[in-house]
Amino acid sequence: MAQDHRHMEELFTRIQRGEKQAFDQLYLRYFDNLKQFAQHYVKREESADELVSELFVQVWLRRGALHEIHNPTRYLYQSVKNGCLTYLKKENRHTRVSLDEVDPANLQVAITASPEQLLEYKELLTLLEEAVDLMPDQRRTVFRMVKEDRLKCREVAELLGLSVRTVENQVYRAVKQLNEVVESYFDAGNANQGRASRFFFLVI
């Protein structure tokens, strides 16, 4: 968590210095997740795309002030949320949103480097990514924000307008769902049970 935060701060520092490569890294890392987040509010993909694109334009144009931002990841999400609410007001839409989503597990696996185990890992990771894609919208979104973007449950709750308990429950259910995928994979004989313990999934 602290390492991710430091990495984001370093990216913002480099962007402030005008490093286009750092800006490109930020864009590739966050665009899809922010777009998905925006779609919970504005519903239309093209509108979400425009709002997130505008945010990145502003980040680059106002890069000289990035040193004032203490939590870059939260800043990105909060900026998108503010943009969405402004958009909804202009469109005279109701701003109350029902959320339920998030994407592939930011799961890490400790395995040996043998070709057979690597193949098993890739097969299992594909199944896990598919399982995340099939999660309810709110669960998938919450899970991605917590596990991929390393936001705290409290921060996610504030951004999505949910209670902390709801966010924690969604993360728990997502993890439980993915654990079931892992168990089913091994129970189906796709890998030797003796090696199952070598797969250590960091889901929290």
Automatic annotation (TrEMBL):
Belongs to the sigma-70 factor family. ECF subfamily. Residues 26-93 form the RNA polymerase sigma-70 region domain. The keyword Disulfide bond does not apply. The keyword Transcription regulation applies. This is DNA-directed RNA polymerase sigma-70 factor. One of its GO terms (biological process) is DNA-templated transcription initiation. GO terms for cellular component: DNA-directed RNA polymerase complex. One of its GO terms (molecular function) is DNA binding. It comes from the Bacteria. Keywords: DNA-directed RNA polymerase, Sigma factor, Transcription, Transcription regulation. Residues 127-178 form the RNA polymerase sigma factor 70 region 4 type domain. Gene3D superfamilies: 1.10.1740.10, Winged helix-like DNA-binding domain superfamily/Winged helix DNA-binding domain (1.10.10.10).
